[in-house]
């Protein structure tokens, strides 16, 4: 069983427990559910945008604890102030140390910045959670979803006003994924089955395979400003980066330095 398999199995249990605690109807009554969302795809496509989607990430299965000493408000507001085009907030507890409260706190601290709920989405219930907790965008990971699931989840996200970031790792995942309700495609340079690899070769290989109408971003394994320029040259508008900034005692300041070198 791969790490991804273990995460998805655990997620199914989490979702079942959540459903028994609060209904979809009650999630839809939460104050943040009715807020007008902010478009991440538009922010990434705006002239002058940094393109950086900066991530709050305490730990990972491969690296262990990255930084669990800072508040989510300090990290995300620092990112927004430094010029991040968007924010990514982990809400998976067991493997990444995130919580739903992290997303809510990030939203309150950054009311006008698009926020991605970074989690392993396998059920439409989680789409309603994301909206109720303050997200603007949800992540769908092709490696752990069937084409039918991608279609169902992306359609539901659009129905309730959320954008969809579909994450792929190779051309096979791209070709089998229904893209009608996908706003952004993210190429994860790190193989989720073993969390290995440390380059952006996957993004470079898939750059011209992604439909032009869809905003494309590169995820993971980006630590140098020069890599951003390399990816921009082949059409990437966004760059999801977490560990590079989270390893610093002041992630926002680290991001500001990074952007200044692009």
From TrEMBL:
Biological process per Gene Ontology, one example term: L-tryptophan biosynthetic process
EC number: 4.1.1.48
InterPro entries: Aldolase_TIM, Indole-3-glycerol_P_synth, Indole-3-glycerol_P_synth_dom, RibuloseP-bd_barrel
The keyword Amino-acid biosynthesis belongs to this UniProt entry's keyword annotation: yes
Residues in Indole-3-glycerol phosphate synthase domain copies: 4-257
Protein name (database record): indole-3-glycerol-phosphate synthase
Organism the protein comes from: Emticicia agri
GO molecular function terms listed in the Swiss-Prot or TrEMBL record: indole-3-glycerol-phosphate synthase activity; phosphoribosylanthranilate isomerase activity
Source species, domain of life: Bacteria
Enzyme class: lyase
Involved pathway(s): Amino-acid biosynthesis; L-tryptophan biosynthesis; L-tryptophan from chorismate: step 4/5
Keywords carried by this UniProt record: Amino-acid biosynthesis, Aromatic amino acid biosynthesis, Decarboxylase, Lyase, Tryptophan biosynthesis
């Amino acid at each position: 069983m791969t790490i991804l398999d273990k995460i998805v199995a655990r997620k199914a249990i989490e979702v079942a427990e959540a459903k028994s605690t609060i209904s979809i109807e009650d999630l839809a009554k939460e104050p943040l559910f009715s807020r007008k969302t902010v478009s991440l795809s538009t922010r990434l496509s705006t002239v002058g945008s940094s393109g950086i989607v900066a991530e709050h990430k305490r730990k990972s299965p491969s690296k262990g604890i990255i930084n669990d000493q800072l508040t989510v408000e300090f990290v995300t507001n620092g990112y927004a102030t430094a010029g991040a085009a968007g924010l990514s907030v982990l809400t998976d507890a067991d493997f990444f140390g995130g919580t739903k409260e992290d997303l809510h706190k990030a939203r309150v601290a950054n009311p006008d910045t698009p926020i991605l709920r970074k989690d392993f989405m396998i059920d439409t219930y989680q789409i309603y959670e994301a909206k109720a907790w303050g997200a603007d965008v949800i992540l769908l990971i092709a490696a752990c979803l069937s084409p039918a699931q991608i279609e169902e989840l992306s359609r539901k996200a659009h129905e309730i006003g959320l954008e969809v970031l579909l994450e792929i790792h190779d051309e096979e995942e791209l070709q089998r994924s229904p893209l009608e309700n996908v706003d952004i495609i993210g190429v994860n340079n790190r193989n989720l089955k073993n969390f290995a690899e440390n380059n952006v070769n996957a993004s470079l290989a898939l750059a011209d395979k992604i439909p032009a109408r869809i905003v494309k971003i590169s995820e993971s394994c980006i630590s140098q400003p020069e890599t951003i320029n390399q990816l921009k040259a082949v059409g990437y508008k966004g760059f999801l980066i977490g560990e590079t900034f989270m390893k610093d005692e002041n992630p926002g300041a680290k991001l500001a330095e990074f952007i200044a070198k692009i």
